[in-house]
Amino acid sequence: MERVKFTSEFICRASPNIVYQFLTDPACLTRWFCDEVDINDQTYTFVWEGSAEVAELIEDKEGEMVRFAWEDADDDDEYLEFDIKKSPVTGETIVNVTDFADDDEVEDQRALWLTQLTRMKGVMGG
């Protein structure tokens, strides 16, 4: 099965710095993304229902973007990225999520990110 890169866009009413905090701070991540998270330097261990996944924070620009590389990724070029921008027209914060999935699972992954980002927006109030 071929892996493909896809990007999904989400609008938030929270500031880019608050969005960034919800993408990097353990107390915030456990409110919308995972059950537990342990951060050791640049290594994040995310836990869902007792199952751990390890990711390395490979790029980090405060208030602008974070990029993780999953330890068990099929391809070293795969990553999970959250790009945060402020719309100059509307003033809203735009979050672009870039991820990889098998080509027949892209729509399921988009739906998962919609669920997750909707939950994040709910807990951050934006």
UniProtKB/TrEMBL annotation:
<dbReference type="InterPro" id="IPR023393">
    <property type="entry name" value="START-like_dom_sf"/>
</dbReference>
<dbReference type="InterPro" id="IPR045736">
    <property type="entry name" value="START_2"/>
</dbReference>
<dbReference type="Pfam" id="PF19569">
    <property type="entry name" value="START_2"/>
</dbReference>
<feature type="domain" description="START-like">
    <location>
        <begin position="2"/>
        <end position="125"/>
    </location>
</feature>
<protein>
    <submittedName>
        <fullName>Activator of HSP90 ATPase 1 family protein</fullName>
    </submittedName>
</protein>
